[in-house]
Design goal:
By secondary structure, the protein is of the alpha/beta class. The strands form 2 sheets. The protein has a 5-stranded parallel β-sheet with strand order 7-2-1-8-9, with helices on both faces. 51% of the residues are buried. Helices cover 49% and strands 15% of the residues.
């Protein structure tokens, strides 16, 4: 039995998401360290909100990173075994790299705050959009984007599960692509409530800002291999890790391929570490043979420990 950890990204946050860990020293220590690094009480924001503040990209990204790493440290404190591989969905890749020892927590939360602000600044609110397209083959989604672009940007940016693709770009082009995808046979195509067209080429200016921030922090060779989003590759050198993170900001998240690559390396169990169970659901859709588990509270952590021990 070989298992991997995966970490969720933006969208899985909620007020109170860490309340069940309030009595866990390892998890609370991570929140305290992240708060000190940012110079603000991240724990209070996660516990009390308001939701409008937590859902701001500038706050969501450091909060989700912190939550994922906090739950991972709780796993380690409980004597949980070491994973063979790690990955994270979009922002979650930073949590994976932090858990794997490639990034220092303080550096990581500061970098994702810079990443979040740069992403928001790259495209004025209302100019960009994202939409989910369900029930249409990937190549048909890509073709719908080509047909709908009309000189603007609209691209497939998240390959989350079979027939579950997210597109992003200029708002008007995304609307045209929605109509084109529906005409091509999509079961559903609907706008997402997001503030920027994440992972589209419109985010290239944000990637340039991110490159400057990543150049200033220490990146180490991961103690546990991390499969990245942009190339579906495992990088060991700090410069290659930085480069992949920079390109990830304005290139597609190839999540289906990430999970398939893990299985190809012998992974049988995948544990989602962080708020929500979005990735666990995706794993089941990508490959029903994989055992998908999730850690969201101490009870589910114990259940995952028991499942691995019985495997």
């Amino acid at each position: 039995m070989k298992f991997a950890f995966v970490f969720p990204g933006q969208g899985s946050q909620s007020v109170g998401m860490m309340d069940v860990w309030s009595g866990h020293p390892a998890a609370m220590q991570v929140i305290a360290q992240a708060s000190a690094a940012l110079g603000e009480d991240l724990g209070a924001l996660m516990a009390q909100g308001p939701a409008e503040q937590l859902n701001l990209t500038t706050n969501t990204q450091p909060a989700m990173l912190t939550a994922g790493v906090a739950m991972y440290e709780a796993w380690c404190a409980a004597g949980g075994p070491k994973a063979s591989l790690m990955a994270g969905h979009s922002l979650g890749e930073y949590a994976a790299l932090t858990a794997a020892g490639a990034l220092n927590l303080a550096d990581a939360v500061r970098v994702v705050r810079i990443r979040a602000d740069a992403m928001q600044a790259a495209v004025p609110v209302g100019t960009g959009a994202m939409a989910a397209v369900l029930g249409l083959d990937d190549h048909l989604v890509k073709q719908a984007c080509v047909d709908a672009a009309e000189g603007e940007v609209v691209e497939a940016v998240n390959f989350n599960a079979p027939s579950q693709v997210v597109i992003a770009g200029h708002a008007t082009a995304v609307q045209r692509a929605i109509a084109t995808a529906k005409a091509a046979g999509a079961k559903r195509a609907m706008l997402l409530l997001v503030s920027a067209p994440f992972h589209s080429s419109l985010l290239k200016p944000a990637a340039e800002v991110l490159a400057g921030a990543l150049a200033k922090i220490n990146v180490s060779t991961p103690a546990i291999a991390v499969v990245n989003n942009v190339d579906v590759a495992i990088e060991q050198s700090p410069d290659a890790i930085r480069d992949a993170l920079v390109r990830q900001a304005w290139h597609a998240v190839r999540w289906v391929e990430v999970i398939q690559a893990m299985k190809a390396q012998g992974i049988t169990h995948i544990i989602e570490c962080g708020p929500g169970k979005v990735l666990s659901g995706m794993v089941k859709r990508i490959d029903p043979e994989l055992v998908a588990l999730s850690i969201t509270d101490p009870e589910s952590m114990q259940a995952a420990l028991d499942a691995l021990a019985a495997a």
